[in-house]
Design a protein that fits this description.
It is built from 13 helices and 26 strands. α6 runs parallel beside α9. The chain has a seven-stranded antiparallel β-sheet. The protein has a six-stranded mixed β-sheet with strand order 1-10-9-3-7-6, with no helix packed on it. By secondary structure, the protein is α+β, with helices and mostly antiparallel strands.
Length: about 700
């Protein structure tokens, strides 16, 4: 990969023969784990302006109808998060000469507060072409990372690195998107509505009602990142609804509103309709039945056919899955049980995906595994060799396992003498279910039939007989490592502990997928490593901590929430702990602050542990000290028990729930995996949601 400095440019065509479509990644990290930003893409004409509002892509308008732009969303990286964007340069309209890639922060946060700001561009096969690191960010609340622009018949990339202190509104104005400024009204104490300030930096939304008129703003329940203990006096008033605006105007309003698109999209209600069955033993007829499946081979054939057929019939779903693999936007067809020559014995991949665009074909071979069956290296190697000889673009492996950064699912050899490159990708069944749930519950699809197909797919993947339940086995090392910790016989440096840490990391990624699909938000593991750190070295260090204290630990963050959820599995006590730290507002009276917290937690479980965090004294280290604690049940009648007797300053509170750890390795009711999944779900809904609902910062929750 070629590294370039700020202001430099390079021809993408010169770097790769497969640069007709690229994946742009914007990355950053944060010491607190809570730093985040929203990406946006602007298509500009020769005058440096957008042609209309449809040339502006962001969290509430994530994809172009022609497939030229698609925001793929956030994924965890070795040092933080990466936000990825698929750009099909062959589909970009002729009138567009520049593609600006930017990001913005919200709630007054600045880019100087983030570390490791970076932009990379990869070709269709996923091969990184060019990278650019930003080390001079400061007070900016919006930032242009880079741009792609035409020069004759080729596309070039320029590292821009230009920031705006005026947020996304200032950036949008520069490129011809009018911004509708709205006046604030002071909120009187005790007002029922709670919202952020109109015109907050980085809080720009488009989304146009039919005819180009902006739709009315709905006040969110709570501003993302707002201090839950600050009280009504710290919450500004709802912005008044604008009566009219010029077409293309961008209202500088708060987030949290429902999706507003030019076409009505269909989502399914979360609550099922009342059943007409006489009793619970009646099973509803399903499009994809599973009870007859008896063998792993039957499960693989059925699962592959079900998934590929729905991908071909529901364009939004098919495009969502294949865009991340470098496929163009176009007409898709899928096939199963295709026989392909390979030496003396033909090979039969489980499936084939073909996408046609402008007379050219993109082809991927699919190898599927269900239940806990592992992918076989020799099988995948054969498909990579076949794809290379036949000029196919990709091989996609599909199983219950979850991929990790810096760790390929299957080791394959690539013949460097071959001019044609074949990219190898992995998809987990949990990821497929996650994308289906996002579409039918939160984002919507084109028509009711497509929504029904996705619902039937989801029912199939969740059925106990389908074999597509996601990551469900902690591996062969789990039982001996757990027993070694219980018996205190596990030695430092035992290689099996690294295997357990890898399985734990896969489990946390799957927990994030399930929680994110339910909420309609991105939920990601938090990585606190610096850029360039070795993922395997990080896992070895975690394995050493596991040997020392017997705990597996992780952190995750839900997009739009200010707090990071900590998850810890103590193998010595067989307890799973989920916790979150709530900062104390400055200048608040301690007892008032405690009472307000307990009021917010009115619907939380009675066994919730609440601990006050005290300001650390000189030489006491960077973290806060531990103060009085108790269960919510005991503290409700005596809130003063949370205050230290010596008058030490309270800087925050730690909220924790404990749950018994499952004893088996599998995904059964008593299994370890299920116990962690249930613990996070119970903690989020029972505790985190009580502190203030996560706003639909992506515009998906209205």
């Amino acid at each position: 990969m070629q590294e370039i400095p700020k202001g430099a440019n390079v021809s993408l065509t010169a770097l790769s023969e497969d640069a007709g479509a690229v994946v742009v990644s914007l990355g950053w990290s944060s010491a607190s784990g809570a730093g985040d930003a929203d990406v946006s893409v602007l298509l500009l004409d020769e005058n440096g302006k957008v042609r209309d509002e449809n040339d502006f892509y962001f969290y509430n308008n994530p994809a172009a109808a022609d497939g030229s732009v698609q925001l793929l969303g956030k994924v965890p990286s070795d040092n933080g998060d990466e936000d990825r964007i698929s750009l099909d340069l062959t589909a970009v309209p002729e009138g567009v000469v520049r593609i600006v890639v930017a990001a913005s922060r919200y709630a007054g946060a600045r880019f100087g507060d983030l570390d490791d700001l970076r932009m990379t561009v990869a070709d269709r096969s996923g091969e990184p072409l060019v990278g650019y690191s930003i080390d001079d960010a400061g007070v900016e609340t919006a930032f242009i990372f880079g741009e792609l622009y035409r020069r004759g018949e080729e596309w070039k990339f320029r590292a821009v690195g230009q920031g705006y202190e005026t947020g996304l509104a200032g950036l949008a104005t520069d490129f011809g998107i009018p911004v509708l400024e709205e006046a604030e009204e002071a909120e009187e104490p005790g007002a029922a509505g709670e919202t952020g300030a109109a015109g907050e930096t980085g809080a720009v939304e488009t989304g146009f009602a039919g005819g180009g008129e902006p739709a009315a703003a709905a006040a969110p329940a709570r501003t993302p990142g707002a201090d839950p203990l600050a009280g009504p006096a710290a919450e500004p008033a709802p912005a008044p609804v604008a009566e009219a605006a010029a077409p293309g105007a961008v209202p500088a309003q708060t987030r949290g509103r429902g999706p507003r698109t030019t076409r009505k999209k269909v989502t399914l209600p979360k609550v099922a309709k009342k059943s007409l069955a006489e009793n619970e033993s009646w099973s509803q007829a399903r499009l994809f039945p599973v009870p007859s499946l008896k063998s792993d081979r039957e499960r693989e054939v059925r699962a592959t056919s079900v998934l590929l057929s729905v991908m071909a019939q529901v364009p939004e779903f098919g495009r969502r899955l294949t865009a991340g693999f470098g496929a163009p936007a176009g007409r898709m067809q899928t096939f199963t049980e295709v026989s392909l020559p390979h030496g003396d014995t033909p090979r039969r991949p489980d499936g084939v995906i073909r996408v046609e665009r402008a007379g050219k074909l993109w082809t991927a071979l699919v190898e599927t595994k269900t239940n806990g069956n592992p992918l076989k290296a020799e099988q995948v190697q054969a498909y990579v060799d076949i794809a290379a000889r036949r000029g196919y673009e990709a091989v996609i492996t599909l199983s219950n396992d979850v991929a990790l950064e810096g760790r390929p699912m299957v080791e394959v050899k690539v013949d460097g003498r071959r001019k044609h490159k074949v990219s190898l990708w992995h998809l987990s069944w949990a990821e497929a279910a996650h994308q289906a749930q996002l579409l039918i519950r939160h984002e919507g699809v084109g028509n009711a039939a497509h929504a029904w197909l996705l619902q039937e797919l989801l029912e199939y993947l969740r059925h106990e007989q389908s074999g597509c339940h996601g990551f469900q086995n902690m591996g062969a090392a789990w039982v001996p490592v757990r027993k070694g910790i219980e018996d205190e016989t596990l030695g430092l440096g035992d290689a099996r502990t690294v295997e357990v840490v890898e399985s734990w990391e896969r489990l946390i990624r799957q927990v994030c997928l399930r929680l994110g699909g339910e909420l309609g938000q991105k939920a990601l593991p938090v990585q606190r490593a610096r850029r360039g750190s070795d993922p395997q070295a990080r896992r070895v260090a975690a394995a050493e901590r596991l040997c020392a204290d017997g705990k597996l630990s992780a952190e995750l963050r839900v997009d739009g929430a200010s707090s990071v959820i900590a998850v810890s599995a103590d193998l010595r006590t067989s307890k799973v702990r989920t916790s979150v730290d709530v900062p104390a507002p400055e200048g608040a009276y301690p007892l008032v602050m405690v009472k307000r917290l307990l009021k917010l937690l009115d619907g939380a479980p009675a066994d919730l542990h609440v601990e006050s965090l005290l300001q650390a004294g000189p030489g006491a280290g960077a973290g806060p000290g531990s103060g009085p604690r108790g269960t919510l049940e005991r503290l409700r009648p005596e809130p003063g028990d949370l205050l230290p007797a010596d008058g030490s300053a309270v800087v925050g509170f730690r909220l924790s729930l404990l749950k018994g750890m499952g004893s088996t390795r599998g995904n059964t009711e008593s299994g370890f995996i299920r116990s962690v999944d249930d613990a996070v779900e119970r903690f989020y809904h029972g505790v985190v949601a009580q502190l203030g609902p996560v706003e639909g910062r992506t515009g998906r929750r209205g």
